[in-house]
Amino acid sequence: MDSQLRDQIPTFSAKPAAAGGGVSLSGGLSSLVSGGGRSAFETFVIVLVAVIIIGGAELLLTVFAVPQYILPRPSQIGTALITEWGFIWPHLLITLYELLVGFAIGASIGFVLAAVITQFPFAEKIVTPYILLLVTTPMLALVPLLILRFGFGSEPRIIAVALASGPMVMINSATGFRRVDLAKIALARSFGASTLQIFTKIRIPMAMPMIIVGLMVGSIFGLLTTVGAEMVGGAEGLGNRLNYYSSMIRMPQFFAVITLLAIIGISIYVFFFWVGKKWASWEA
Amino acid sequence: MNAAGSFGLPHGGAPAGTKMAVEGATKFYQTRSGAVHALDNVSLEVKEGEFLCILGPSGCGKSTLLWSMAGLHGLSGGKIWLGNDAITKPHPEIAMIFQEANLLPWRNLARNIELPFELKKLPPDRARIDALLERVGLKGFEHKFPRELSGGMQQRASIVRSLAVNPSVLLMDEPFGALDAFTRDEMNLLVQEIWMETKKTIIFITHSIVEALFLADRIVVMSARPGRIQEIVEVGMPRPRGVEIQSTPAFIERVNAIKAMIDHRKA
User: Fold this and answer.
1) For residue A168, which phi and psi values (nearest 5 degrees)?
2) Please, which residues bridge with residue B220 across strands?
3) Sheet with strand B94-97: strands edge to edge
4) Which of B91, B97, B148, B179 to mutate to test the interface with A (most CBs of A within 10 A)?
């Protein structure tokens, strides 16, 4: 295939070619988590910039006496996160629970569907437009309907999360499974591989980079949908806390919740980045 | 060529002293632009321990023939035998070496070489693998990934992968087509040495006349559309052959003679 290219990339250096690669969605964060070859100077600059941004915000908000209900200072947000923690963490657990369960259901269905449907090109042609419809339609719109049917518990939100993340996982995994390399399948068959062995030892590893991208995008979509669904209805979860604190104009607490959501989102990214480095770094 | 039944084998088979036999292989396949007649009544016998090169322009069906011999393609007509076994699916005695190494990029070299054992659910033959790695000069590279190796090293790894399961027939599908001339010479010498040491039957596809003449005991020259055997050339040069024979007048004369056969058909 691209042997000429391959010949020109003799990567014998200690720093693997995949250091910044894997399945990064953007370069910025990946350089933060890649670790490996980061020098002390880079670490210093990264910390320095963070200090300047947070410290600068603190300073500007203080100097211009911006009222707390418009934009609280970072120190106020930090304090609120600590003092309000006892009230926030049960909601954090509910959000994480809904996200995990919904994502697990959606991702499993999406993965299996992608694996099966790509084996039947005709069926795939028929199903794909509907999957695209699910990908592009905001599943949040269904939440009021789901609440009517399933009540104000976690179920409607879990369903919405599954509906939002599943198609994302499916569409990306399907792209991965479609990238069949007939020579590699022939190779396995020439050594007597069964259909199942071809699937587990050739097709899945080959699709892995795209599967991981799908899982990453799907889980981030899942997070958006979880929080959105909690804001639409019900009395629990971080989304609901956002409504609650903003209605009370308790902005430091409001921003403390946003900080938590940002931490969840970044953790998801870092987790899948790490998974990608471990399982898909061959495709740098 | 031969009528299989005349050897007293009720179910047919390759005649004595013959490792593989192709009888009237015919292959059509469908493409968007219509049916392609890839092979037309190709018959061929490969002797035990022979080094046979199949030479021809692109589109002459030589790869189709080889993949059928590997049991990877079905035929529209005709039969292929390995001894008394009809080849309809991959056979454990036959290993294939593909164009451009075909290593799995997500596995390091050691795990690539263990793949056949994994698929056959056998414990890897460590002693044999180590000896082969040593032999082809890849010792110490076991933990490298394919992208960290040069094209020549990748193809050597793929040869080790095929030899590790100790097949009696090696089918090689233009294995060195993508390598530079120097690496190619080096690989040709290695293949010749391996063949002389192991006595395997090797069927080697190439579109390089020089490569075919350098390696083969016999060269099967094929012509295109439909793929037919045009001529079978006995090489009969002493072994081991060194790269330098490629520049001798006798060698060049033979290259030109084969070239004329192929050109003649085109006109």
Assistant:
1) -60, -45
2) B54, B232
3) B94-97, B169-173, B201-206, B51-55, B218-223, B228-234
4) B148
User: Closest to A3 (Cβ–Cβ): which among B90, B115, B151?
Assistant: B151
Say yes or no for a CB contact (<8 Å) between A6 and B115.
no
**Backbone torsion region of residue A82, taken as left when φ is above 0, otherwise alpha when ψ lies between -120 and 50, otherwise beta:** alpha
The beta-carbon neighbor of A11 closest among B98, B147, B178 is B147
Query: Quick one: DSSP state of residue B244?
Result: G
The pLDDT of residue A179 is: 84
B147 closest CB neighbour out of A9, A184, A208: A9
Query: How many CB atoms are located within 10 Å of the residue A224 CB?
Result: 18
- The verdict on A71 touching B (C-beta cutoff 8 Å) is no
CA pair distance A196, B46, nearest whole angstrom: 34
pLDDT at A37: 59
Q: Which chain B residues contact residue A192 at CB under 8 A?
A: 90, 92, 119-120
Query: Which of A4, A12, A184 minimises the CB distance to B102?
Result: A184
Query: Across residues A90-97, what is the average pLDDT?
Result: 95
What element of type H or E holds B130? helix B126-136
**Residue B121 at interface with chain A, using a CB cutoff of 8 Å:** no
Reported as a single tens digit per residue, the pLDDT across A171-218 is 999 999 988 888 999 999 999 889 899 999 999 999 999 999 999 999
pLDDT of residue A24: 39
Query: Is the CB of A191 inside 8 Å of chain B's CB atoms?
Result: yes
Best to test chain B binding among A15, A182, A191 (most B CBs inside 10 Å): A191
Q: Does A7 touch chain B (CB under 8 A)?
A: yes
Q: What is the distance between the alpha carbons of residues B42 and B65, in angstroms, rounded to a whole number?
A: 9
**Residue A216's closest CA among A66, A123, A110, A122?**
A110
The distance from CA A144 to its chain's CA centroid, rounded to whole angstroms, is 24
What tokens were used for A52? Answer: 């300047």
**Residue B120: CB partners within 8 Å, gap ≥ 6?**
A191, A192, B92, B165
Q: Please state which of the ranges A15-24, A262-271, B83-92 shows the lowest mean pLDDT.
A: A15-24
- Rounded to whole angstroms, how far apart are CA atoms A72 and A85? 17
pLDDT at position A233:
80
Residue B89 Cα to chain centre, angstroms: 17
**Predicted interface score ipTM higher than 0.90:** no
List, for residues A34-90, the tens digit of each pLDDT value.
Answer: 555 578 899 999 999 999 999 999 999 999 988 888 889 999 999 999 999 999 999
Which pLDDT value is given to residue B264?
Answer: 62
Rounded CA separation B111/B152 (Å): 18
B175 touches chain A (CB under 8 A): no
pLDDT at residue B126 is higher than 60? yes
Mean pLDDT, chain A, as a whole number? 84
* CA separation for the pair B212, B204 (Å, rounded): 8
Interface contact flag, B102 A183, Cβ < 8 Å: yes
CA-angle at B209, arms to B206 and B214, nearest 5°: 90
